[in-house]
Predict the structure.
Amino acid sequence: MKSILTLCAFLILFNLKGLSQENINAYKYVIVPTSYNFLNEPDQYQTNSLTKFLFEKQGFTTLLADEEFPEDLNNNRCLGLYADVEKHKAFLNTKLQVHLKDCNNKVVLSSEIGESREKEYAKVYNLALRDAFKSFDNINYSYQPSAKIVAKTTTSPSQNADDLQVQEEIERLKKEVEALREMRLQKEADDAKAIADKQNSVVDQEKIDLDVKEEKPVKKEAKIELAETLKKENKSDESIQTLFANPVANGYTITDASSKVLYHLVFSGKEDVYIVKGQDAIVYKMNNSWIVSKANDSGVSMKTLNVKFN
């Protein structure tokens, strides 16, 4: 009985391996993104370059997302598998797992989880990634065209490259916006503390000078400065202009009360995230508020929009 169960388990694993092999061989290219979500810069610590190199060692024709694509891949993005590296939560070590997804974002193959206990980022990502790729050593990849995949065509020749660049730009802007939000919250906290300290200082001074009929000039100036500061704080809390969202093809136009178009939003492919046509900016929803984030020479500026959808 035991030998029969062992044989069945072997046959199941053999069939699964054969199915995975057949699926992998049907794809002609592997496309590697220029950056990963768990890192802050493109190809930081050479993780993306190393991914490309390790796939090439396995026999795949590998391209970075910002490279010029071959004509057949431009015409049919489903010829390629799209690589991604996932960072798993871990204590005292770093764990990475490599995924290969098809043109419909469905995972076709995943590596075992690779890990490393190195402390230096440049070393730990390199070693963990190489450890993950060890599970690909027995793939024996060899491209065998699949009629089902070859028959597909892409409606827009550069759609895949454009989609990847859009997603990368959105992720980059989101990280910058989040960093600016943290800085703004910290500045507001520091300003509030400074105002409170100034108020306490004025109160203490008044207690010391209870018997003085006229306040010193310096004290009057401090009161005036505090009043101006509070006035600015109150002004920043005024309600912002009401805007209107009007649905158009693949997005919205944002207009003011006079029907003047302020923004032309194009759907990015991600829920509640839109690209502003003609501007280096995005509009996205955060905590039930719509935020416009614009990239400029000094970084990213952001503003809350009071939008009503028609």
In short: Residues 13-157 form one domain. DSSP finds seven helices and 13 strands in the chain.
